[in-house]
Each structure stands twice: as structure tokens, then as C-alpha cells.
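Lab manual, section 2.4: Encoding a predicted structure.

Procedure: take the sequence of the chain (384 residues), apply the prediction step described in section 2.3, and record the output as C-alpha cells. A sample record is shown.
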Amino acid sequence: MRVLYLLNVSNASRLNADSGFTFADLLAPAMTDAGVEVTVASPVPAGDARVHFAPSFSPSTKYRARFDPGMDALVALMRERRPEVVVANQVEAAPAVRAALLEAGVDARIAGYCHYLPFSFTGNGKLELDPAMNDGGLGRSVLLAFAAGLAACDRVLVHSSTAASWVTAAAARTSVELGEKLHVVPAPRDGLLVRDPTDVTPPGGRATGIYNHRLYAHYGTARFTQLARRLVTEAPVRLTVMDLFGTRSPERIRLDPSPERHLEELAAVDGVAVASDQDDRVRYRNLLAGAHFGIAPFRPGCPWSMSVIDCQAMGLPVIGPRTGWLAEHIDSELLFDTDDQAVQIAERLATDPEFYLVHAKRAHASTADLTPAKVAAPYLEAIA
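Recorded output:
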């Protein structure tokens, strides 16, 4: 099988912050091991030399990634590579991919991986547009483009049962029938970020929590900041907050200045330290190894989180709000509905070694089936 994997790397200078690239970089070699010929179309090549590379442009904004697929380049790529399966990591690009295949005279299946959902659903079933995709009132247009992408796909892949439920509901509201083409295939964990839970040491009365998520407003960073202030003053806890972006371009800051604003606010909180992995995976691992637990984002439309999996694979219990995929995946004893509950859980992790070690083992075990090889098998079955 010849697979062409179309990535939409939005920040080639900070690949560690791009979960889509990390996913492809881990999965493509495992697919190659299974006998598949894989070409990754990306601004930068995958790390494994056996994976073919087709250079592509990096969209300057999140809206260009959705509305400017670059038809000429797509047609040329289809003619050159003649794939049997095209994986569109940006689902909104799937109609353009279909048109490019027609123009190039190439017969290939299109698999859309719903890496990011531009919507979520409340507890009572109300569809909420993602504010990150609603600048200038574009949210509904993005939603319709997403639905058009679903319609153009032969296969639709999602990370989790939560994502499957949301995507199915959103498709139904736009008269798109998914039927049997919807498949749940979780993302793989990074083998570099795996630690035997027997090597994990309990905090011993004072714990370090790590927040390793993007600091966009739509990730619920204001809510996290509110909780951070309480954790460092009411529990024996210190926090490390990751600066995943470094210096962003003026264009990105102009579109959304919230990461810089939130980073400055968090850096001013006593008991909170800002750290950067400097786009170095080993440095990132060491930062995780120096922490005792992770904190999930407060993002309403969270269908999956690579950063949560990173922590858990390292044997770090992750505490998080009882919402979306987090409620599906995180152990119920570590979920909270209020800041009071979050403070109580963090304090117990810091002061109760038995409780801590139980959850360190559970965290690690929750990622056991996420090795690239174990994920590649259902992935290939889904796109076949």
C-alpha cells in the first residue's frame, strides 16, 4: 500500500509543540515496518530515513491551513506520488484533495484524521463553536468546511470515543452520513517519553506539578491560572509551566496574542516557574521526569491530548477537569469539578505516597496500548 500523509505543520521551528507532526513522525516508521510505503508531505522530513519525504509549505495562519489548500501543489503531488491512500491531517482540505485526485487522474482513498475539532458539545448536547476558529465570525464557516471534509472522505479517523460521539453529532447536523467509515484510532505515545513506574519516586510531602499545554485562551488558560494561584498557596505544590512556543511571528501574535499575555501573567505568580524545552525532546523528557504530576488543560473541546499522554507514559498522575475526553481517559479519583477538589487531590498526591504510587502505575498502564506498533495495526486496518 502506498500512503501519502498530508501534514499541516503550522510552526516548523517548534516541532515539539506540533502534535500532528509528532504523531506522524511516530506512526510513519511503524507503518513502514508493516510493509507500507509511506510519504510524508511536510515542511520538514520525518526522523526515519525509510519514510519518503515530499516538501510542502507551512501555512502562515490556522485559517490558511483550512481555506488555502494549494491546489496546484496538490495536483502535482498526486501525479508524482500516485498514492493508493491519502491521509488528510487537515480534514477541511479533503474536498481539495478529492478534486486534485480527479484532476491528476489518480484513484485513491481519502482518510481524514480529525486531529482537531473546531467545535465541542456541552453536557446537554448543545454544539459550541471553538472560539479559536471564530475570529471575525469565521467559526460557522470552519464548521461547514469541516463537514464538507467529512463528506469527501472515504474513511474518518478520530482519537477517542468522545471525539467519535462529537463528530457523529456534528455530521448529522450538517446532513453528512458517516456510517461505517468512522473509526476510533488513538494517537501513539513517544517511546522516548516512557518511564517504568517502578522508577517513579513519590513526592515526600511537597510535589511539583507540570502544565505542558499551549497557553492559548481557548485552552482554558485563564481557568488554569486561577487554579495555579490556589495550588501554590493552599497545597504543598510548586508548578512548572511550559513555554511551548518561544518567540512567535508578529502575524501569529496579531491573530491571537493570548499565549504571550497568559505567559506573562503566570510568570508573575510566586511558586510558578516557566520552563522551555527549547524544542529539544530530551530536555522535554527531563522536565517531565523532574515533576510529580501533570495538570490537564481546561479546553472544552478536548478530544485527546498528547501532553497528557506524555505525562502518563512517564508515570506522572494527571489531574484534570471532568469534561470531554479527559473524563473518558483520566482515572476518576483524579478528576475534579471545582478548584477545591483539585487542591485536595494535589495535596493528597503530595502527601500520600501509597495513593501517589497507585496512580503513577495506573497512569503508565493507561498508555500501554499506545506504542506506535500497536496503533499502526488498527490504523492501517481503518484506512485499508
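Check your result against the sample. Residues 147 and 171 are 6 Å apart (CA to CA).
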